[in-house]
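[job 4471] stage=fold_predict status=RUNNING
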Amino acid sequence: ALTKQVILLHITILSAADNFERRMAIRRTYMPVLEAVQLPLGEEGLDIGTIKVQFVCGQSKNERINHLVQKEAAVRGDIWQLPEAENYDRLPQRVVAALSLAVESG
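[job 4471] inference complete, writing structure tokens
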């Protein structure tokens, strides 16, 4: 039987688009530890349970920042940039969008 990876826990981190340094700090510190977790699953332990960490950003008013986030997402593969503007009044919608993206991605 083939081993299959199953996401047991999906951690979504809401991040402002311009928080490049904070995202890098998370990538350097606890993100590698979390993503290294591999738990045997199933009766024979053939499947592997993993933890996935993903950042979610909105659109910045600054197009240069948006371009840098898109480049960071292409290189890192761990950022979803939502099409709506970043603002605290829209935080509930961002959370719902992040949860929807997590469900769609598996």
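[job 4471] summary: Residues 91-105 form the longest helix (15 residues).
[job 4471] exit 0
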